[in-house]
Amino acid sequence: MATAAQNRRGIIAMMAAMTLFCCNDALMKLAREVFPAGQALALRTIFAMAASLALVVFMSDWRKLPLGLRPVVLARAGFEALCALTFIWALGLLPLANITAIVMASPLLIVLLAVLLRIESVGWRRALALTVGFIGVLIVMRPSADGFSAAALVALAGAGFVAIRDLTTRFISSDVPSTVVSLTATVVVGLLGVGMSALETWQSPWRIELAYLAGAALLVTAGSFSIISAFRNTDVGVVAGYRYSVVPIAVLIGWLVWGETPDGIAYAGIALIVGSGLYTLHRQRARPDSQLKPQGDKPL
Q1: pLDDT tens-digit profile of 122-179?
Q2: What DSSP line would sit under 79-148, residue for residue?
Q3: How far is CA 140 from CA 56, 90, 269, in A?
Q4: Are the beta carbons of 127 and 294 closer than 8 angstroms?
């Protein structure tokens, strides 16, 4: 179990990451009004690579770049790429607040996966909270008589990839700098974007949306570094709950930029998702009913 100071550091890093990611999402949504998903990812990666490399040099971690080829680091990068692809594709079709709420199921999925992988045990109260949270996800996704929308299902898949990515982060040895982990993810995301863009009709990049992608690259690089730091040497059950700080930010940005406001039903679903996550956090802190088991020979 992490110390209180380590958890505080993780909480601050998580809240910083959520703010940065939400601003990145807003710029990517603006860019997606013009660029297809693969092209948007590929173009953003050009700027993100420069920012990530600059961060590696600034932190004097360039000698440790070969550590980015470790299987667990590459695996995390692969899940990061799937997160980015599914989220950015859905971002062009769903309101920012709604897709953010769906992806906020990831802390619940983290706990569920931790239970399935037998690295954490959960009592009946947290199991009930998980159930309520997923009901909230269904409400936000709003299935119709014809079934769920493709965009909502892709967003939910993205939440699953986020959960797997964040759990994988905990298995990365502490001798691998977060800057190297972030750069590896940036490269893999870019490769996936280039591969997907080969199937798309590229739009001329010389427009204002390219500036949006440049800004998004800086934000996502800083956010990636923060999210990696948030899950290293911390208690995942404590830190993950602060991911919900992004919800009011997404609602505010959606309203200011696009005039999007969730309706009453969507707000009810968001409340269930956030409430279940916060209750899970409360149970973890007030009366833990789970213990994370150590993995490997390094502190997690």
Answers
A1: 676 777 877 787 788 778 877 654 546 788 888 889 888 988 888 888 788 889 998 8
A2: HHHHHHHHHHHHHTTS-HHHHHHHHTTHHHHHHHHHHHTTS----HHHHHHHHHHHHHHHHHH--BTTB-
A3: 39, 14, 5
A4: no
